[in-house]
Amino acid sequence: MCGKFDLWIPRSPLPQQLRLHRRRTGLKLTGIGLDSLGRQDKMGISAVLCLCAASLAVAGKGIEGAGVVRSLVFSAESSTDYVTVTPQKPLSLGAFTLCLRLATELRHTRREIILFAYRTQNFDELNLWREYDGRIGLYMSSAGGVIFEMPTLGALQTHLCISWESSSGATTVFFDGRRSLTKIYQKNHHVRSGGIVIIGQDPDDYLGSFDYDQSFVGEISDINLWSKVLPDNVIREMANTGKTSQNGDVIDWSEANLETTGRVDIVQRVLESSEKR
Ligand SMILES: [Ca+2]
Q1: CATH (domain of 29)
Q2: Are 215 and 81 spatial neighbours (Cβ–Cβ below 8 Å)?
Q3: What is the pTM of this model?
Q4: What pLDDT, in 10s, does the model give residues 6-28?
Q5: Is residue 180 part of a domain?
Q6: How many domains does the chain contain in total?
Q7: Could you tell me the residue range of the domain that residue 201 belongs to?
Q8: 255 C-alpha to center of ligand 1: Å?
Q9: Residue 208: partners with Cβ closer than 8 Å, 6 or more residues away
Q10: In terms of CB atoms within 10 Å, which of 59, 78, 210, 236 comes out highest?
């Protein structure tokens, strides 16, 4: 099974009245009839089914060898394409560090992009965004976010981390290993378990109400989540070497089960040669 997918694939962007920017209010796209979208694309449907099967063949658990990392490629904007990530343990967190590597050619002046979404039934528990203006934003428990001025994301890979600790509220971003200023956010908060981790879409309900204009387009990989604040030197080493020196205890990208829905390709990136000289 490929999981949930819609049986229509519009070639063109959704009608303007449906492309509402929103984060905490849902617009149930699966409830929209074909007439309102204009047409049904049967070619598109069979392509999705085929790609879905191909992607799942390389998804799954424990497939990475030494020096090889899985990488997710989202080739086009959509409200249908995403990957669910099964964590190693529940996201019940009083502190965390989230790291990932990504590249996107979506211009920062164009729109926002969801980079990581963890949602429980009623709340965006831990969501990371590239904002409309290119800044990086963290949102927890559907509250207002904490936003950082950052260099522009582009086609060249960026190693991005964000860490947070509850008792102090200290929140810090690391951009290619360089540490930002510290901001205070959601002091004494706790990230709750029972949700679902999604890459590629922003869910406005538990697993749905996706927005074409918030989808991720580009390549994203090496998504690790730790239940603690990592030391600066560990993050700096991962950024400088291109390799994750210690995997996350909450999400371990080398082990996490990935389930694709829609047009997402999983490619294997070889970070270093295994051949002896
Ligand atoms: Ca949304």
Answers
A1: 2.60.120.200
A2: yes
A3: 0.78
A4: 333 333 333 333 333 345 433 33
A5: yes
A6: 1
A7: 16-270
A8: 28
A9: 4, 26, 28, 29, 30
A10: 210
